[in-house]
Amino acid sequence: MSQFPQNLLPDEASPEWMNKGDNAWQMTAAALVGLQSVPGLVILYGGIVKKKWAVNSAFMALYAFASVLVCWVTWAYRMSFGDKMLPFWGFPNTTLDQKFLFEKAFLGSFPNSTMVFFQFVFAAITLILIAGALLGRMNFYAWMMFVPLWLTFSYTVSAFSVWSPEGWLAKMGVIDFAGGYVIHVASGVAGFTAAYWVRWTKVDKGPRSIFPEQHYVNANSAALLWMGWTGFNGGAPFLSQRPTLRVGVLNTHICTATSLLTWLTLDIIVFKKPTVFGVTQGIITGLVCITPAAGVVQGWAAIIMGLLSGSIPWFTMMILQKKLPILKKVDDTLGVLHTHAVAGILGGVLTGLLAEPKLARLFYLVDDWQHYIGLFYGLQSGRARAGARQLGVQLLGIVFVVLWNILITSLICVVIKLVVPLRLSDEIIEKGDESVHGEEAYALYGDGERHESYKQFNAYGFAA
């Protein structure tokens, strides 16, 4: 027979306000999002980078996942969703108090413990996405400092501003269904900005090509990301029986499939070769683009978004990347500027154009005909001013997230540079995992242990 703690009565363990179905789905959705990071992105990164960086890429992802969790429960969750300290920031506070964990969350019919975990996996994947821009270049010790600093001073600000009921953008009516702004625009801009600072700390032979000379994309990891997005967008409504959940999940897959086919078609027409790497980019851009709009647009709109997310980021990555000087100079390893920032901004703008007012009101549980209406629907219904305002709020949210992340990410990199080098030395870059961690991926038995050459480099990544 189960025993309850002395200070916890049975009705407190399962209070009347808690919906067991909602709680079960929210935990399932959180698990799906967590699996996108570990093992999803761990495998994806290890498959795309050269063999000599497979261990380092896994290290960066696993460290970020663990570090974010500790910081999240200690102070960062409350800064994102707690009591307002500033219009864009909450007071730092712990979530480890038992009384707090059993109380009802600020939204939904489940306890804080469920909400804390659900929001954690979103915060964690954001940092791991940033790592995609820095693989094989950033000093691991610098990365260890970067993760908690960026989580504290960037992610919490975007999350509070956009998602907290007390956030200034949330009060203005910005629509970000599941993280197009907070996660994807932020990670894309921050990743590119950090890559800029890492690139310019020491001049080398130049940035790598978006298509490495030797790469292999594990299609299973891309498929895991795709299916895991069912929890990513499916968990956003916080209620398992809301129609916006069902619509959001279906639209997620419609947009992604359309984006994949669009990217594939462009690759075949222009480069005459269909590649798994290209298809993977099409999957990611489709998932990212639909995220801010998933449950507030109709199916035909999801197809339009898929066509655009499979073509505009394709153009910026495959064409502009080779022509614009700033893009050629910055070593964004996996092109997160294109797959996340460009696709996320595109999704935010399209949300301002295509948000269907009835679906939006069902999601936000309001009866407000002056907010949450896309411009096209505003023009159609004679409420052009309301639609124009919504598009303006969407653009304002994009500008805020972009500028804040450029500023804060730059400041963090400058501060870290005063303590440890941001960039690995040329000697270590030449050797890869063997020099950074003293081990290799895919080594034969007995060949993956520490090597003597590991002793040649000190803890800060420079030759001893």
From TrEMBL:
Membrane-crossing residue ranges in chain numbering: 24-46, 58-77, 116-135, 142-163, 178-198, 245-264, 276-294, 300-320, 332-355, 395-420
Residue ranges occupied by any Ammonium transporter AmtB-like domain in the UniProt entry: 24-442
Membrane topology listed for this record: Multi-pass membrane protein
Location in the cell: Membrane
Keyword Transferase on entry: no
InterPro entries in UniProt: Ammonium/urea_transptr, Ammonium_transpt, NH4_transpt_AmtB-like_dom
Organism superkingdom: Eukaryota
Main location: membrane
The keyword Transmembrane helix appears for this protein: yes
Keywords: Membrane, Transmembrane, Transmembrane helix
Recorded family membership: Belongs to the ammonia transporter channel (TC 1.A.11.2) family.
Protein name: Ammonium transporter AmtB-like domain-containing protein
Protein's organism: Rehmannia glutinosa (Chinese foxglove)
